[in-house]
Amino acid sequence: MNNKTITIIINTSWNVYNFRVGLLKALEEEGYKIVVIAPFDTFSHKLEAFGFEYHEVKMNNKGTDPFEDMKLTMDFCRLLQKIKPVVSLHYTIKPNIYATWAAKLAGVPVINNVSGLGTVFLDDSFSSKVARLLYRFTFRFSKKVFFQNAYDRELFVQQKLVDAKKSDLLPGSGIDTKKYIPVKHAVDKAKIQFLFIARLLRDKGLFEYVDAARMLKKTYPEVEFAVLGPFYPGNPTAVTEEAMERWVKEGVIHYLGKTDNVEAFIAKSDCVVLPSYREGLSRVLLEASIMARPIITTDVPGCQELVDEGQNGFVCKLKDADDLAEKMEKMLLLEDIERVQMGLHGRQKIIDEFDEQIVIDKYKEAIDSILV
Q1: d(CA 205, CA 275)
Q2: Which of 26, 289, 292, 359 could form an S-S bond across to 346 if both were Cys, CB 3.0 to 4.6 Å?
């Protein structure tokens, strides 16, 4: 085979750099040339430094203008016709829909990855119905559609958005278990830190976390409830900077800002909390667990899969600040050694079930089946 080019199309270069490089390097070792198509950001040049070819595409990830999306589709089509990959890997909503249409026009086989359903699938609004219609039409052209939790896969199959024979499960984006090393830190029981890590959206359970912190502060004033993550203006469930300032002034929350080095903050925490309404498969919880930190999260798809109840953390009820506070107090009252043992159990669970190599092997198998 003369042409061994694979394109990856996604909504940010940041996403590729942080979650997909292991897969792309593994494919490169198989003799494939890797071409990344994504909007430009500060990580685009870093991808080129890895040796990947990069092409910029303008993409309004939050926009719903049909003419804008039509132009995006044609931009994808022109790039795919120019690059002529043997297969194209698509991630996130707009690439999964519009780049897949473009690939059909360009005669390029596609492997899709549904890494999460997003806000549009949390209700039955008009936008949700349109999204389902677009997925149903688009995924007719896919060779393989990967899902990151069984619930999402079952939902798509039941609603006839994808052919069950084309679908398969992945353990999220996987994680390089050799890269993350547990870091011990001195524990001051009175100053234990809970850490919430996510984009600052209501759907991530931030309001429930703040309410639970407010309850616990009355009894445990020295315990720290930290928040790490970027503001996300433009999203309908975005938390404002004004709201965060109020919580900080109230003394309930310690806001840590945003970072590209999440591991450093996890290392200083005692427990990572994510009361999300839904995930594909939570990367935050994967990273917390592989760094041997116990976790607390909601009993929902994309989160519950990462918890062995009482062994590496606790699950709480969805949108229930009282239950979240109860689980956080339960974690708080454990002996230090018990939290350490929880963290170690979580690390072993990730090594056994969510190693990046599982993802790599699944992609290699799917690509081989297409090319054969």
Answers
A1: 5
A2: 289
